[in-house]
Target: ATP synthase subunit b
Amino acid sequence: MNLNATLFFQMIVFFVLGWFTMKFVWPPLTKAIEDRRQKIADGLAAADKGKADLAQAQARISLIEASAKSENHARMLEAEKQAAAIIDEARREAEAEKARIIAQAKQDAEQEVQRARDGLRADVANLAVKGAEQILKREVNAQAHAELLNQLKAQL
Model:
């Protein structure tokens, strides 16, 4: 075995192995490494985009919460205004009903006073007739003197 021939064949095998590796082994490895690098870069970009989307979503949530709170506050104020309006309306209706009841009571009282006056006039007329009857010692005919009695009632 010649050392030079062995060295020469080893160099040829080395170059053939290097060529074979560069031609058939290395391209799939570099492609796999590049694909993996691209997936990692896409994952990092997606994570950054997710963080940005999360921040935007939280900002929108804050805006929606603030809007809901202000809308709720406005609705509460409107409800309070409506309640006050309903109370005022009920108060006005109660005052009107009170005035109507008082007016009705006054009218009823006036009617009762008028009936009492009419009753008293009739009683006074009867007493006057009885008094006149006693004075004259004879009976006065009420039907015959109805007009005279009505004039007497009107004067009383």
Notes: The chain has one domain: 3-155. The CA atoms of residues 35 and 118 lie 119 Å apart. The mean pLDDT is 87. Helices lie at 3-136, 146-155.
